[in-house]
Task: structure prediction
Amino acid sequence: MDDRAPTRSLAEPPPDVTDALGPPGPGAAGALGRARRAPAVLRLCLVYVGFRLVELGTWVAVTIHAHRQGGVDEAGAVMVAELVPAVVVAALVGRAAARCGTRTVLVAGLATQAAAVTALAVAVTASGPWWAVYGPAVVASAAMVTTRPTLMASFPPTLGAAEITAVHSVLGWLDGLALLGGPALVAVALAAGGAASPFTALALLIGATALASRGLPAPGSAGAPVATEHLGFASATRALAGLGGAGAALAVLAGQALLVGTLDLLVVVAAVDVLGGSPALAGWLSAAFGLGALLGGVGGLLFVGREQLWPVVAGAGATAVASSALVGTSEALWLTAPAFMGCGLAVTLLVVTSRSIL
Result:
């Protein structure tokens, strides 16, 4: 079956929102209720949280493994090796979705992640050579960039402004849950079962998530979301350039992504080199970041329906700067852990508000 979605002009009025989502309700509760009743939203959220648990857990586990093998130099080199192919793949996702279909790219990306993380688990278990460990990690990282945009494109276009903000707040909450749960899973597995245990657990989880994604209705079928037009990287960039505030919102998202990437390495350095803890402590500090992100996701619900979100962005940015400075200067666990929590809270608020602005 061809699952490519019919295109719809961005200027064309959407289908009747009241018919699709039911009568409006008050505030955040009403927006969440209407979004929840939209087709496929709950399954999409389940697939999203499964994917994010594995994405974040794998990133932490690979960084910890690389640090144990060769210190900061090897960990940093592996992070760069994972990110460069991912950037290339990210620029091609829109074109692939337009040609092959959104659901096809989504399912194929998750299946590739499952295969790569499984190969990673086998290589670590067998104490394989560096290329057998880091090769699948690079493949998994590249495949992971296909999931978020295809999932976002699968949400129903009938959602109004309040429902979109509510959905992004829920996704922010799920991000926090994943930021807490993924590293915590790695920490528990490292403490209980050794170096390969986190990768085995993550492989099982991403396999289940890939299977769940196959149950999503194809765009254009009964009960399925109808996606808007797919744009290539260059076309999407030109389109966003013409929207007021889009460039600033994208800059905020890029800045928070850079901060998260930096903290991914810094959390291992802080746990092992600064605080003198075990690799499992890196997982627990990442979980502290996740706890802050979870609080940020819940806090994002307070801003559902607000038109002026830039003051929230500014406050979250100031919190991120202050918390990051504390992470970089603290040599005590009782300060470092709350600092990572502050970073997590700020990052999630930045993501929720910036995406809502977009």
Summary: Residues 41-90 form the longest helix (50 residues). The chain has 14 helices and no strands.
